[in-house]
Amino acid sequence: MPLLLVRHAVALARRKWEGEDEERPLNRRGNRQAEALAARLGAYPAERVLSSPALRCVETVAPLATALGLRVEPDDALAEGSTGAALHLVRRLQGRTAVLCSHGDVIPRVLEALVVHDGIDLGERPEWPKGSTWVVEDDGTRFVKAFYIEPPT
Length: 153
Known about the structure:
The protein is 33% helix and 20% strand. By secondary structure, it is an alpha/beta fold. It has one domain: Phosphoglycerate mutase-like (Rossmann fold, 3-Layer(aba) Sandwich), CATH 3.40.50. β5 (133-138) and β6 form a beta hairpin. The model has no long low-confidence stretch (mean pLDDT 95).
């Protein structure tokens, strides 16, 4: 069963946002990416859609959750700086199909841990730009395969 690790879509720039960073929304491009992600990832039979509580993450997967008839479940384990908690969540969800939306500091660390501990191959130059998705698959005991889905333009 695959887990889909989504990095949030493009948000308003931090330097231009005056509110709390957790409340920083997607920009127009990010909203288009979120809609395109829903179309692109909707074929996966996800049982759950989990997200960092940050608004930009929730907004990234909200169209997908709606298309799947699910709700977005905010989870602090996917917040910025929560690499250990995020990896623990990924391990707990092993064997299920779920979408997890997080940040640019969390996604690469989780993937790197799966390389080290499970031996998955991310290719020569893995990347995780905003709006991208990594699909990781398990065999019931460990994660065995990963592939990259480019962000929508």
